[in-house]
Amino acid sequence: MTTRREFLALSAAAPFVRPDFSVAQDAGDSGLVTGKPMPLKYEEIKGFLSKDQLAPHHGARYSGAIKSLTQIESELEGADRSKSNANYSPIRELKREQIHAMNSILLHELYFSGLSAKGEKPGEAAREMIEKRFATVDKGIEDFKAAAIAARGWAILSYHPVNRTLYNIVTDVHDVGPLVSGIPLVVIDCYEHAFYVDYKNKKADYVGTYPQFIDWSAVDARFRGLR
């Protein structure tokens, strides 16, 4: 029988080893593994995001995070560990920026791979867990949209493996706010660069339209992996 200590140890490692955390059909496709951007599923999503919106978001922001990580890890190899301190030191800044870039890569991959060009309904696994947590799917989506409106960076529907509960998380920066051990299931980019070309300053319109274009088949696969 698994002890509580063993369970917590496994839970803490969950986001890094569980197959349900795959950001694509195969986690090996991630830029964290290949050093290259995953391709967009769609050049545009009619009724939601144009090519002019998606292309620079994918090419500059997501791809840029992969380039940054490559540079950071290269500099880390030669960084002087003996001069590390908590006030200011190259090693401190590089370590912080490493996590910032890594989270940016994964969050963008979850966001892009979680988009669909047509409306879908949640599958059985997603629907059951959302209803258990929020009573109805509509209430869960309303809570998610409220989190997205409040977020300066990301809103994430995250599953915590310790208490086995869903949370809609507000994250203002890539490395500030993610739920420790949380497994992200639905992710929306709330930075202006994700919507400004198409929506200008009407963030609420972008957030309100997003649920109609969630790729529930991809999201449901993430939910099924939790069982």
How is the topology of this model organized?
Blueprint: H1 4-17, H2 31-34, H3 51-77, H4 90-113, H5 124-134, H6 137-150, E1 154-160, E2 165-171, E3 183-189, H7 196-199, H8 203-209, H9 216-224
Antiparallel strand pairs: 1-2, 1-3
Summarize the structure in words.
Helix 5 (124-134) crosses helix 9. Mean pLDDT is 88; it is low at 1-25. The chain is mostly helical. The chain has 9 helices and 3 strands. The longest helix is centred in the first third of the chain and has 27 residues, at 51-77.
Produce a short descriptive summary.
The chain is mainly α. It contains nine helices and three strands, in the order ααααααβββααα. The chain has a three-stranded antiparallel sheet.
What descriptors fit this protein?
single chain, 227 residues, minor pseudopilin epsh fold, 3-stranded antiparallel β-sheet, disordered N terminus
Under CATH at level 1, the class of the largest domain stands as Alpha Beta
Mind telling me the CATH superfamily name of the largest domain? Iron/manganese superoxide dismutase, C-terminal domain
SS class: mainly alpha
Could you estimate the helical fraction of the residues in percent? 40-55%
Number of helices: 9
Tell me the CATH topology of the largest domain.
minor pseudopilin epsh fold
The share of residues in extended strands comes to 5-15%
Question: What is the end-to-end distance?
Answer: 18 Å
Spans where pLDDT lies below 50 across 5 or more residues: 1-25
What is the total number of structural domains?
2
Approximate shape: globular
Could you spell the SSE succession in H and E letters?
HHHHHHEEEHHH
What Rg is obtained from the alpha carbons, in whole angstroms?
Answer: 18 Å
Number of strands: 3
Mean pLDDT: 88
- Largest sheet data: 3 strands, antiparallel
Sequence of strands across the biggest β-sheet: 2-1-3
User: What is the annotated CATH architecture of the largest domain?
Assistant: 3-Layer(bab) Sandwich
